[in-house]
Amino acid sequence: MAETDSGASESVVEKDAGGSDKLVAILIAVTTLVGATLTWRSSVAGDASGDADYAGLRSVVAAEEVKARSAVTAFEHYAAFTAFDRQDELARLMEKEGSGDAAETKVRAKANRGLFEAKFATREGEYGVTREMSAAWSDAAREKDLNPEPRFAEADKLSDKSLGLIAAVTLVAVALVFFTLVEALGAGFLRLNIGLGVACLVAGSALGFYYEFLAR
Amino acid sequence: MSERPDAFTSRIAVSIAVVSVLIAGAAYLQADAASRDDRANRDSKRYSTEALGRNIVGDARTNFDYYTAYTAWSEMDRLADFAESQGDARGKSRYTTMRDRLSRLSPMLAPPYLNAETGEVDSNRWDAERYVEDVAILAEKFAAASAVKDAWDNKANTYIVHLTLLAAALALLGLSTTVPGASTRAIISATGGLLSTIAVAWAVVTVATKVPDLRDQKGAIEAYAKGAGFMHQEKWQEAAKEFDKAVQASADYGRAYQQRGEANFNLGKRTEAASDYLKALGLGERSGASMGMLAWIYYEMGRFDEAITMNQAALDVTPDELWVRFDLGLAQLAAGKKDEASATFKAATDLAARVVADAKAAGQEAPSMVWYGLDSSVESLIGLAEAVAGDAETPPPAKIVNGKAAAELATRVAGEISGLAVSLEYFGKPAQGSPTAVIENVRFAPLDEAGKAGEEAEEFDENVHNVALRFDFKGMKDGSHVVFKIYQDSQETVEWRLVQLWSQGVEGGFEAALAAEGGDFTPGDYKIVGFVDGHYVMSGTFSIAAPQ
């Protein structure tokens, strides 16, 4: 009987061991799949972050180009307006005095008339150089993205997401270690290793879920 | 749990597990460092682009303010004065009205930028306040972000080395379970353990290494930018104070020390300037210009050996910097190393000739550094000769070794270099052969408005606006290319330069008015230097006194 009992007991242990082997194998497979998924999502987020960064830098270049071009053009127009206004006002004063040079001065003024945007000139003899630059900015903004901030904010968010997902992968990797230790440390630590492994797997998965779906 | 592994295998399994965790951790650190590297890189690109844009916009604005608004205002102001001087009251009123109307064009045409008494504007202050400080802030942020980027890039790359070591350790630990023989297994597993330990220790050091960011040092960049603004206005004292604030905010701010060195140098504080430049060099600001500047300060202090060493260090960084090469020769000459100095001057003039020839071959203008290098070296060599003669304070005459010989060589080399500058400018290559022309007895005579010459002298009163150059010559050839350069207070005015093909025979006396009819010379010290076919042949000086 004793032999029979002993054989039955070994059989139970083997059966239990066979069950935990299967469980550990399944957990390792699940952990590997979760880790691979998190790594993939991290890579996608990192790639998107790089794209957003690039788009932001393109906006910076475009914005500076528009500012530089519009400033150069607007101040050229302002210079032409100044020449016009000076000659025009001088001609007016000369006319008032009855000076013979008034007509010639008037011609000089007219020579500059077509060299600036009349819509930005005022009757008071002022020129809206800032308005001209703003108009150029508005025109360009219809064709190009001139505001880099949203792009950079998006890039930062995606970069944080990518990093958070890598942290999740690290936790999942630790889970894998505990499942591996089940084999190495034997039955004595079976439950502890499986428990810690599952805890890490759950924590890693939760962290991954948070960064993938919830983090703002 | 069908088979219980042996103790060795268990230990290795645990080790592999631990190394795996370490790899995961190192991977996280690497990703974090790479992410910070990317952000700093993006910031640096953004700052540099914005600085460029800000500069262009600022230039466009300033060009309008100065060349359009102020020029127009000034024209009306002068016309009003002229009308008044002619007794034209209506004209004065008209132009004054116009001038006042133009004042609204730009804030530059009002105090504190416009001096109503003199009618002059402080355009440097205008530039500084309008955009120089802003551009300096962006440029400093660019430099700071670039430094942060480099630091994180370095960290990220170091973590990759750690990952590689850990991967190798992992492979060795795995291998140790498959090889036969206990001792072999022990050696392989111990090597794996050692690699892991090294990687972990190294990673700890890397994590603990801080990445300083100048942008986080409150007030440092802002003070630096204000200092840059004062430097632009040549307000050295105010600039030095701002750089003081910058280095107080960030003790490792190399560029602030460098700039304070320049401010102190301009204030004549050579000891402080040298100390600042040394500090900047120690903090990594090892540009050829900085080292060349420090070498020059040492030279002016009479510390010739240190000047030589520093010039050589500068040339290691920027071997084609002509002015540094000439300064090296100058320091060698002052230190009594005549042969070395001659060799250095020869190498420098060869370099200048090569740069000009290369530019010509490429169909381009020679870079301005050639002319700057040649002109400044002539000035420095003459300065050395003057110091030996007791006519200049720097370098200290007592420290010049074998002063008489040094002065002779300096004068001769100065003539050769000034001749080289002319021959390179007009012919694109050094002059050939030796000069045959001899010019002697150089004199000057004042010319009145009708072109009538007065009594020869070297000093003239304030009413003299034109001067005749006279000299005796022999050995001249008709058709030779003759150039007379005219310097006022050490600065050449190129529009005054006299250039002609010689047609006055071999021997005789020469006379020519130096300025155009009527003359436009103003008070100052004048120097005339003559060249024939690219050879230096004469020089002479006169001065026009300032009004009492």
General description of the model:
The complex is a heterodimer of chains A (about 220) and B (about 550). By secondary structure, chain A is mostly helical. In chain A, about 85% of the residues lie in helices and about 0% in strands. Chain A has helices at about 1-95, 100-110, 130-145, 150-185, 190-215. In chain A, α1 (about 1-95) runs parallel beside α5 and α4 runs antiparallel to α5 (about 190-215). Chain A starts with a helix and ends with a helix. The relative contact order of chain A is 0.14. Chain B is an alpha+beta fold and about 550 residues long. Helix content of chain B is about 60%, strand content about 10%. In chain B, the strands form three sheets. In chain B, strands 4, 6, 7, 8, 10 and 11 form a six-stranded mixed beta sheet that branches. In chain B, α8 runs antiparallel to α9 and α12 (about 340-360) packs parallel to α14. The mean pLDDT of chain B is about 90.
Gyration radius over CA of chain A: 38 Å
What's the story with the biggest beta sheet of chain A? none
Biggest β-sheet description of chain B: 6 strands, mixed
| Spans of at least 5 consecutive residues with low confidence of chain A | 1-10
**Helix fraction of chain A?**
over 70%
Number of strands of chain A: 0
- What oligomeric state do the depicted chains represent? heterodimer
Secondary structure class of chain A reads mainly alpha
Shape of chain A: rod-shaped
The residue-averaged pLDDT of chain B reads: 92
Number of DSSP-assigned strands of chain B: 11
Question: What percent of residues of chain A are in strands?
Answer: under 5%
Give the SSE order of chain B as H and E letters. HHEEHHHHHHHHHHHHEEEEEEEEE
- The arrangement of helices and strands of chain A along the chain is HHHHH
Largest interface: A-B, 61 and 49 residues
